[in-house]
């Protein structure tokens, strides 16, 4: 039994599951907010899996997710602009959750992984992913809330 | 143990996302569910130890497929609005 | 044939397929086992060819001809889409209005473009070592350019996207793969044989022709996706048909 894999399983069931639930019902804004949250959690999931399987090269999946995830969300924001415009002031309810979740979950995942990896290039890669996730979450949240 | 649980959970996620994508009728909203299905498939390939395939799925499903679907929806809607 | 007969024919066909699938499934190795006859041989061959990523060794060395087929399918389907989505005589172009984009989003798009491009190049260049390769990296590179569309607007993307050049690179990538295969014949071996020195295991210079074929696929896929999306974007944003004028 491997703690990292247990954490990944918990994140999949408790994080991605609710995202799918929120993403398959309700207004377009709520769905896009859920999709955005799912890319963030998936990226953290990949980091945990890479450590849990003992395969440092799997970190590349997280690296790609942390740049393509926000890009995908911005595609939805641009092309669903009319539908997102009808959202109440402050954007869809899910959009408000993203920043606090990012601020808590990203360091809570990346920092223990940094401790486990030790200093070096692998740790620099983890930190870059963490920073890119933070930037992506900030920008997509703002874009979602201001349509 | 954790490994079997991960494979089972991810399979369930993919099945649920695929079902939700079929049951969503509006194409623009369907694109969002389809994107979630793509993320689930990338995770499934990874827990089955096929990260190369996972990376392909991620690359195509994250931004390119939603962009193509939504651009098509926009073109069709624009034409319908003008004709209707 | 009446509807009823058709349904029976369909049911018989489906039952036959299901029976064959189940019969084939019983002959498979157990799920999740660590013994697999093909896997063991593929891993041994990739170690012999000094390629750390066995999947790349299978795709670009042991079964390189299959990948040529896949690459040609992408090439052909993009070509078909270009023909279908071309601007016809009864359509005309309207310049889109510039979009008003928040400054933060604009800065994010401009800043992330080079980062994403770099990640794409990294994925292409490390195909022989870690998960990824020409296809995966090529798609990331193509997505990077479209950050200009979501971070600014279509006019900004058009300025840095000389479509003719991308069409040329698309064809060149496909041609490079075909010609690299010919190098095997010139060296007195088989088509697409890995005839280059295999290098040192688990370094950038390893795998012989694998990194070169990866680069060719990377060029082809990145420009194919850019050309494909260009025609979708043109149709959705710039091109309108004149049917109203005829009425």
Automatic annotation (TrEMBL), chain A:
Signal peptide: none annotated. The chain crosses the membrane at residues 61-81, 101-119, 126-144. InterPro entries: MrpF/PhaF-like. GO terms for molecular function: monoatomic ion transmembrane transporter activity. GO terms for cellular component: plasma membrane. It is found in: Cell membrane. The keyword Metal-binding does not apply. It is a multi-pass membrane protein. Its main location: membrane. It comes from the Bacteria. The keyword Transmembrane helix applies. Keywords: Cell membrane, Membrane, Transmembrane, Transmembrane helix. This is Multisubunit sodium/proton antiporter MrpF subunit.
UniProtKB/TrEMBL annotation, chain B:
GO terms for cellular component: plasma membrane. Pfam families: MbhD (PF13244). The chain crosses the membrane at residues 6-24, 31-48, 54-73. Coiled coil: none annotated. InterPro entries: MrpA_C/MbhD, Nuo/plastoQ_OxRdtase_6_NuoJ. The keyword Phosphoprotein does not apply. It comes from the Bacteria. Residues 12-78 form the MrpA C-terminal/MbhD domain. This is MrpA C-terminal/MbhD domain-containing protein. It comes from Streptomyces mashuensis.
Automatic annotation (TrEMBL), chain C:
Its main location: membrane. Residues 111-226 form the Na+/H+ antiporter MnhB subunit-related protein domain. It is found in: Cell membrane. InterPro entries: CPA3_antiporter_subunitB, MnhB. The chain crosses the membrane at residues 72-88, 108-129, 135-154, 175-193, 213-233. It comes from the Bacteria. It is a multi-pass membrane protein. The keyword Ligase does not apply. GO terms for cellular component: plasma membrane. Belongs to the CPA3 antiporters (TC 2.A.63) subunit B family. PANTHER family: NA(+)/H(+) ANTIPORTER SUBUNIT B (PTHR33932), NA(+)_H(+) ANTIPORTER SUBUNIT B (PTHR33932:SF4). This is Na+/H+ antiporter MnhB subunit-related protein domain-containing protein.
């Amino acid at each position: 039994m491997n703690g990292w894999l247990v954490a990944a399983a918990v994140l999949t069931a408790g994080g991605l599951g609710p995202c799918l639930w929120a993403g398959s019902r309700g207004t377009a804004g709520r769905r896009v907010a859920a999709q955005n949250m799912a890319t963030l959690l998936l990226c953290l999931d990949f980091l945990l899996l890479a450590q849990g399987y003992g395969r440092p090269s799997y970190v590349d999946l997280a690296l790609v997710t942390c740049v393509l995830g926000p890009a995908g969300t911005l595609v939805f924001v641009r092309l669903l602009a009319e539908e997102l415009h009808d959202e109440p002031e402050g954007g869809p309810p899910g959009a408000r959750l993203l920043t606090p979740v990012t601020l808590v979950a990203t360091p809570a995942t990346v920092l223990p992984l940094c401790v486990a990896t030790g200093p070096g290039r692998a740790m620099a890669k983890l930190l870059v992913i963490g920073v890119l996730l933070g930037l992506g979450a900030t920008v997509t949240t703002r874009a979602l809330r201001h349509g | 143990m954790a490994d079997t649980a991960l494979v089972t959970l991810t399979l369930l996620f993919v099945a649920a996302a695929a079902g939700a994508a079929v049951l969503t009728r509006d194409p623009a909203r369907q694109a969002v569910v389809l994107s979630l299905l793509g993320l689930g498939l990338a995770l499934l390939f990874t827990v089955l130890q096929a990260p190369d395939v996972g990376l392909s799925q991620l690359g195509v499903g994250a931004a390119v497929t939603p962009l193509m679907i939504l651009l098509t929806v926009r073109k069709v809607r624009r034409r319908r609005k003008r004709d209707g | 044939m009446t509807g009823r007969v058709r349904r029976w024919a369909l049911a018989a066909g489906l039952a036959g397929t299901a029976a064959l699938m189940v019969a084939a499934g019983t002959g498979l190795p157990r799920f999740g086992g660590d013994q697999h006859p093909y896997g063991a041989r593929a891993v041994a061959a990739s170690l012999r060819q000094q390629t750390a990523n066995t999947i790349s060794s299978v795709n670009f060395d042991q079964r390189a001809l299959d990948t040529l087929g896949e690459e040609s399918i992408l090439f052909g389907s993009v070509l078909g889409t270009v023909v279908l989505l071309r601007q016809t005589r009864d359509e005309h172009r309207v310049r889109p209005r510039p979009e008003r984009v928040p400054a933060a989003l604009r800065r994010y798009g401009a800043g992330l473009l080079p980062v994403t491009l770099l990640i794409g190049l990294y994925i292409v260049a490390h195909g022989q070592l870690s998960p990824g390769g020409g296809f995966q990296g090529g798609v990331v590179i193509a997505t990077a350019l479209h950050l200009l569309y979501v971070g600014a607007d279509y006019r900004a993307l058009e300025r840095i996207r000389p479509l003719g050049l991308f069409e040329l690179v698309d064809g060149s990538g496909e041609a490079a793969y075909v010609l690299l295969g010919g190098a095997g014949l010139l060296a007195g071996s088989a088509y697409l044989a890995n005839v280059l020195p295999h290098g040192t295991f688990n370094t950038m210079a390893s795998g012989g022709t694998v990194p070169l074929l990866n680069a060719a696929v990377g060029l082809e896929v990145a420009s194919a996706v850019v050309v494909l999306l260009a025609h979708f974007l043109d149709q959705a944003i710039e091109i309108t048909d004149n049917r109203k004028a005829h009425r």
